[in-house]
Amino acid sequence: MAHQFFFNSYILDNLPAPEVGFDVVQDLSEPRLRMYITQRGVKSFFVRKRVNGRDKRIIIGKYPDVDIEDARSRVSEILNEVSKKIPVRRKKISFQDFVAIYLSQKVRRGEDSLMKLKRAINLHFQDLFAKNMQDITESDIQTVLDNISGRAMAARMQELLQSIFNYALDMGYCKNNVCEDIPRVVVKRRERKLKKTGLQKIISVIKKEKNLTMRSAFLMLVYGFAPKTQIFKMRWEDLDFNHDLWLDMPLSGKAVLLLQDLPQNGEWVFMGRGKFHLTDPRFAWKKIVEKAGQPDITMDDVHKFLMHSLVWNSDKDILRENMNDLLFDLEA
Asked: CA-to-CA distance for 156 and 181, rounded, in angstroms?
């Protein structure tokens, strides 16, 4: 059950982030209004409503971008809107056309991530493209999943199909979600073995790397507290050394020192081949982790270790201090 209290800015500003997962709190003034707090300290207002036998959670917006009174006032409007019965559309639509609508209206990703998703859709869902949404059966979906090599990919594609058909149901393009009763693809999660000592060994090897671009980019995976795709696409124009910011994200002290020592010879901080930014230097990374005695560790493992270790805070100055404290502890 969600923890209940009267929402006010003082309490919401000082709500602690959970160590894992997320917490939920509920407003006593408007009991239908609730809030998620993630382990990164992100706070989002939402409401719940059971529609067509399914529990729907509708995000109102992030706090403090949406203030408390606005969130309270929008609860009734949102619940009335989702309670309206959506008529089933007589006009048919193909799976391919509906996926285009789904991607434009429901998916919020960066350009590279969106292109990667589209490639996966074109590869795995091609047999569904010509079929109308109303005509696709549970057997069709199961065949698609059975033809995907790799259980992890099959599980991700099953989740995507579930989301696509939920949206089609909400939009009135089908009467039921044909994915609903298909057994979930079970994936054995890879155990991430990166520990503090392992990361320290990796950092030590990175510092000995002779290639300046690789050495700097790999160190920024640690000092930048961001995923590799964001690090490698870093632009000089997005950096504000007067306020130690990268876009709206505070930079750690070590990140600032590293970046200020690099030559500013173009648009990208980390140049790859030609005039493009660095993309995925997996072979260079493989050599690093093998020398460090951590051959199974990926760049994503480093980011996730840092995200779990960092104490998040909505105040940029406090967050920067927490970054610096963590890096000092790693390199002490």
From this structure: 16
Q: Sketch the domain layout of the chain as residue ranges.
A: 3-83, 95-171, 196-331
115 HSE (CA, 13 A, CB side): 2
In CATH terms, the superfamily for domain 3-83 is Integrase, DNA-binding domain (3.30.160.390)
Whole-number pLDDT of residue 323: 95
Q: Which amino acid is at 43?
A: K
The answer to whether the Cα torsion of 253, 246, 232, 196 is positive or negative is positive
63-97 exposure pattern, b = at least 16 Cβ within 10 A, e = fewer: beebebeebbebbeebbeeeeeeeeeeeeebbbee
Sequence-ordered strand ranges (E) for the chain: 3-5, 22-27, 34-38, 43-51, 54-63, 239-240, 245-246, 249-250
CB-count exposure of residue 262 (10 Å: 0-12, 13-18, 19+):
middle
Q: What is the pLDDT of residues 206-237, one digit of tens each?
A: 999 999 999 999 999 999 999 999 999 999 99
Q: What is the mean pLDDT of residues 64-79?
A: 89
